[in-house]
Amino acid sequence: MSSESLADAAKERGNALFKAGKYRDAVKEYTEAISQDEQNAAVLLLNRAAAYLALNDFRNGLNDCRFAIQKQGDAASAKAYTRQAKCFIGLGELSQAADAAETAKAVSSASTLEQSQANDVLNQVRDIQKHLASFQSYNQEKNWTLASIALDQAQKSAKLTDSTSPTAWKLMRGTLYLQRGKISQAHSIAMDMYRADPSSTDALLLGARVMLANNDIQKAVSQVQSALRNDPDRQDVKQFLRKCKALSSLKDAANNAFKLNNTQEALQKYSELLTLADQDTAQDAEPKKLKAVIHSNRAILYSKLENFPASIADCNAALELDPGFVKPLRTRARANLSTEAYEEAVRDFKKAVEESAGSAEADSLRRELRSAEVDLKRSKKKDYYKILNVSKTANDNEIKKAFRKESLKHHPDKGGDEEKFKLCNEAYGVLSDDQKRRRYDSGVDDMDGMDMGGGMGGGMGGMYGGMGGASGMHGVNLADLFGPGFANFDMGPGSGAQYSRGGSNFHFG
């Protein structure tokens, strides 16, 4: 069998395989045919280019189109230029694609059908260019959502996906993922680029940006150094390396100040870190997790200084950047507790418990949540600590002194408020009794229905029942509490005596 016959047979097998969608096998047959028939190689090259196009192997397809056009010379066909334009589209080289399509239309021998096909490709190129121009415009405005939609439309017009898009488009997509906080997707794009070309500076740089966005500065430094070794003259790589090194140094200084309790220095360093992290974000993408950690650390420092509004503001900023970040949720919950925003505290603790499921800190968060729920419940009733103006950690002596002060201030015979006076006695009755105080603190009882030792509603007799002339309160002698002038202090109805509003001395009846 002659070489020409062998070539024809291989070509027919290739055509059959192409129609069956077995493009790789078709490439092999076309390659065999080309090796057997140099004279008709141009047609065979265009057939193989079509198979490469179907495989999204645009570079090899373009090479075949170029060789075919070279072999055809002045008689190069419109089909060759149209197919070349499609390969240029796949490579993202749109100006060359438009030129090739225009040439296809201009070929004198082109049929009406071929001219129509070339015109379709030219319109396709223009449509892609329009969407990419929109992408650039939205990207400059930092409208990442619309920029992403525009890139989607460009890919759709080009009949490409993330995996088959040109490298430049993959880089745009990866950067968009970063800017939208989709770090894992950005990492996937970077890995795809790296697998396709391990020497790609763009792939290494994107990977470094992913590391920085994921708050792994040291890995970012290592990755960008590899990129710089590949291309020592890339200014954007040099700039990013300087930024990463500066962030690393400043972060270490801030964390060391934090650990050494140098609060003001740490605050200053974290603020400097935020300023540096925000530099060149249009190019490098916003390092959201890094910034979230900085805001979270600074929030803890502000809480330590009891600047709770500033702490909450930093927590809000951290959670806007990283909504599932447990540490600022916990810090904000504690700050809300300190400012008596109990409902907000409970909500934050619940979210923190949900986000920390399965982690080592989940149990302690659940305990804090239960405590906050008790505080919320109590805030809607009587807060005995607030009534006596003492902290929840006050000892017995502090509670006794506070009761003496508040009772004197609110006693009706001293011009005080009788209801507040009663509340002081009620609060003292609970907080001065270890068992009742523990139950109150734990929130196990409905406070309004808790047995206070003899009924508060009908008077103070339940607390002071059985008092003689110098009766005691749970072991506390009134003379000790108020001084000798108040030894015969009457506690009102139910005590077996009445207080007199007529004088400054208080007597049992």
Automatic annotation (TrEMBL):
The organism's place on the tree of life at top rank: Eukaryota
TPR repeats: 7-40
Keywords for this protein: TPR repeat
Kinase keyword on record: no
Organism: Malassezia yamatoensis
Domain called J: residue spans: 383-444
Signal peptide: none
Lineage: Eukaryota, Fungi, Dikarya, Basidiomycota, Ustilaginomycotina
Pfam families registered for this protein in UniProt: DnaJ, TPR_16, TPR_19
Protein name, per record: J domain-containing protein
CDD domains per the UniProt record, alphabetical: DnaJ
SMART domains xrefs: DnaJ (SM00271), TPR (SM00028)
